Amino acid sequence: MGLVLRVVRVAGRFVGLVTDYGEGHYVGVLRAVIKGLAPDVEIVDLEHNVPSYNVVAGSYVILVSYKWLPRGSIIVGVVDPGVGGPRKPVAVVAGEYVFVGPDNGLLYPAIEAEGFKMGVELRFDKIARLVSGRFPGKLSAWTLSYTFHGRDIFAPVAALLSLGFSLEDLGEPISEGDLTRLKVHEVKGGDGVYEVKIVYVDRFGNVVLSCKPEDLNLGDAINVEVITEKGSFEVPIGVTFSSVPPRELVVYENSFGYVEIAVNQGNAMETLGVSIGDSIVLKVKY
Q1: For the chain, first and last CA: distance in Å?
Q2: Is domain 14-178 in CATH 3.40.630.30, yes or no?
Q3: Strand 97-102 with 74-78, pairing
């Protein structure tokens, strides 16, 4: 027996966007499609400078950003190096939010955090039937490009959901087990020696790790030896950048609850010689 989808109408007033599009016309077109279909919806640009193609970084941004939107909001994530390929386009209700985007792991950490309720693999024929003729700036027949599913699938889905259409109107039921999984919070090891991954680097070069302070018992620690391919660095534990002198490394809990490494008024990514996705070793000194 196939999955049965209980009809749930969203009618979210807010749509949050997370993409790797940068600040060019791609973002403007996403916004135009959503507003063209649902003029009253409020669009919040959470992030458009996710490093290109970096699904891990995009998943971190969604995970730490979505909960600042009102419950009932729709979050559209488009970091989609597999666009036009076999990956599924999906929409998922988790907790009191809806997540829309490619099924490449990008949405999963936030869905897992909220708790999967129901989801669909989006069907373009269903979307086109609802959108065709409604949008004044495009031909009467809504068409699908190979490379801009943000415009052709995900933006109209967000708009339709905000107007009160149900998931059932837009696709076919899937279970949580059908989704591609990706971990942001991930720690290996113990007894003071841990292997973690770099999940994000911001524009200042601050390095976000895949762990939280309690994973490392940082509250009882004196400092941390950070081991990367570039070398070994003895790093003090602080509460903010100015816990150390300018140009010095510091380990601290960032504003979203993850362990982060920074250089006060400098660039930790360059100092450590690391990139998003790298694994590093932390030796915590107690």
Answers
A1: 56
A2: no
A3: parallel
The neighbouring-strand residues paired with 208 are 200, 260
CATH superfamily, region 187-285: Bacterial fluorinating enzyme like (2.40.30.90)
The full set of domain ranges for the chain reads 14-178, 187-285
Give helix then strand counts, H and E, for the chain: 8, 15
Contact 260, 282 (CB under 8 A): no
Q: What is the pLDDT of residues 101-148, one digit of tens each?
A: 999 999 999 999 999 999 999 999 999 999 987 766 555 688 899 999
**Is the CB of residue 80 less than 8 Å from the CB of residue 18?**
no
The whole-angstrom separation of Cα 143 and Cα 125 is 9
3-state DSSP helix/strand/coil % of the chain, to nearest 5: 25, 30, 40
Q: What are phi and psi of 199, to 5 degrees?
A: -105, -15
Give this prediction's pTM. 0.93
**Residue 93 near residue 5 (C-beta atoms within 8 A):** no
Q: Is 269 helix (H, G, I), strand (E, B) or coil?
A: helix
